[in-house]
């Protein structure tokens, strides 16, 4: 066995969906964009559909078309990027629901797919996607005369509950949707945790399903076990890896394991930062030297035997720990997990 094993617990994902569902009276959707945050859209979405999810969200029409193949006719598949040029056929054939982001997209939708359901994304202050308040004011009567299924917006600071931006965006969303009798959606994982004012009719959790912050009660979803290729002992003064970036100051036993930055294990996990470690048998085993493309060196002096694999992600340390060590966020760790792993699903 030479490849690292990425184990994805579909039951944990389903349990996290149920736990987020219990936090609101709203319908709980599921965000499965970017191949379900790198974990495999087909397997993950099917597990979520089995748990009861009926509304899915993807970033792109192409992702939606693939998801339709995986899920069959029933579930609603919403597309955040809306209706981009050239998407009409995919939207029609896969019965996708584009979240219309602009006047241009609305015209394209009405021209190419008259009568086809769509949603609208409003910009309540994030300035990323969606119609601005004035634009929406001019179009809302037209939109409402069409098969409009959902009005949504997205919070910029929902992972910071005390941030004043949350209340400002909530006000703006209320202002823009007042008097409209269409289902509304404002909250991703962070928004769900802000409380019932933010829940509206449909929620859109992503990261919380996959075990990441800010949903602290999430069950861990991912385990990553990396095989040991070789071990050696180094004496004080010897250096390890590219650039001699680590020097032993005592006698240590090192293991070289079979994964690196080509597998999404950030170079910033190397000892430039210094805290990153693997685990085995409850012992913490520091990464030493730089992360190479396919290899990482680990100080296993704390172990009495050499195990076949060392664990980088698991119950003892999660994607957010890796993110902290690498100076990024759990979302980026998950979506970077490489194609080279042996992927194993717990159903
Ligand atoms: C990615 C995304 C979500 C899910 O966000 P999480 O923080 O992962 O829960 C919801 N809505 C929109 C518009 C998104 O882009």
CATH homologous superfamily caption of the largest domain: Alanine racemase
The coarse silhouette is elongated
Largest sheet: 8 strands, mixed
> How much beta, percentage-wise?
15-25%
- Under the CATH scheme, which class of the largest domain? Alpha Beta
User: What is the overall number of helices?
Assistant: 11
Family: Belongs to the alanine racemase family.
Function: Catalyzes the interconversion of L-alanine and D-alanine. May also act on other amino acids.
Pathway: Amino-acid biosynthesis; D-alanine biosynthesis; D-alanine from L-alanine: step 1/1
Organism: Sulfitobacter indolifex HEL-45
Structure, explained:
- By secondary structure, the protein is an alpha/beta fold.
- The protein folds into 2 domains: 10-210, Alpha-Beta Barrel (TIM Barrel); 222-346, Lyase, Ornithine Decarboxylase, Chain A, domain 1, CATH 2.40.37.10.
- The protein is built from 11 helices and 19 strands.
- The protein has helices spanning 10-22, 33-38, 41-51, 61-71, 88-93, 103-112, 133-144, 164-177, 189-192, 319-326, 330-336, and strands at 5-9, 27-28, 30-31, 55-58, 76-79, 97-100, 118-121, 148-152, 184-185, 202-203, 222-234, 239-240, 246-247, 252-257, 277-280, 283-288, 296-299, 309-313, 342-346.
- Helix 1 (10-22) crosses helix 3 (41-51), helix 3 (41-51) packs across helix 4 and helix 10 crosses helix 11.
- The site of pyridoxal-5'-phosphate has 12 residues, from helix 9.
